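ugh ok so i messed up the first submission bc i forgot one of the chains. this is the corrected input, ALL of the components this time, i swear. 229 residues overall. if the numbers dont match what u have on ur side tell me asap before i send this to the collaborators (the ones from the other lab, u know who)
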Amino acid sequence: GENVEQHPSTLSVQEGDSAVIKCTYSDSASNYFPWYKQELGKRPQLIIDIRSNVGEKKDQRIAVTLNKTAKHFSLHITETQPEDSAVYFCARADRGSTLGRLYFGRGTQLTVWP
Amino acid sequence: DVKVTQSSRYLVKRTGEKVFLECVQDMDHENMFWYRQDPGLGLRLIYFSYDVKMKEKGDIPEGYSVSREKKERFSLILESASTNQTSMYLCASSFSRLRSNQPQHFGDGTRLSIL
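and heres the new structure output, hopefully the right one now
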C-alpha cells in the first residue's frame, strides 16, 4: 500500500556511463514523486521532482520518467561523474494525503568510479 | 533558501536519560517531520506535525514523543533512552498542510549515541 520499492540498493558505474534507479509503488492516488541525493555526512537534498500529470522531466544530466499505468518512476543520470556518488532516495505523496507526508524508498548507494 | 537547523550534530547520552532533539525552520512552514535513518532501512518517519500543538504518529513512534509549542520549532523527545535508539535523526519541513505535491527540506541531522 504505502511503501515504495527502490532498486537496486547498490549501483556501481564507470565515470561517463549512465545510471538508472527505479522505484515502484502500488497506490494509484500517488501524485508527486521527488528524488533526493544524500552525500556522505550531509543532508538529503531535492534534486528533481515530477508530478503525475507529466511523463518526463529533465534537468541537465538528470531526468525522471513516470509510468502511471505500470506504477513506476525512474531516475536517469547520464555522463556520470565521481561527484554523483551518493545515496539516492525516491519518494511519493498521495493526492488524498495532505499534511505533506512523503513515503520514501530505502535508498540506492551509487558509486561512480573514475 | 529554506533553512532547517538541528541543534546538535553529535550527541552522546546514557541509557535511561531523557533526551531532547531540537529543530528550527525559518520559512514559516506549517509541516515539520522527524525521521530516523539507519543503514539499509532508509528514512523512517517517527512523528510529524502540521500546526502548533498538533502531532501525528508516523511509522515508528514507540519510545518517542514530540512537542510543537511554536510554529518554527519541533522537538523530538526520547522519554527514556535505550541503546536501540542510537541512530541518525533528521528533521524536515514543508510548506503547507493543504498540499500533497511539495518537497520536504531537511536539516543536517543529529547523530545520537546511547551508551
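quick check: Chain A touches chain B at residues 6, 9, 31-32, 34, 36, 42-46, 49, 51, 89, 93-102, 104-107 (CB under 8 Å). that seems consistent at least. Residues 8 and 70 of chain A are 18 Å apart (CA to CA).
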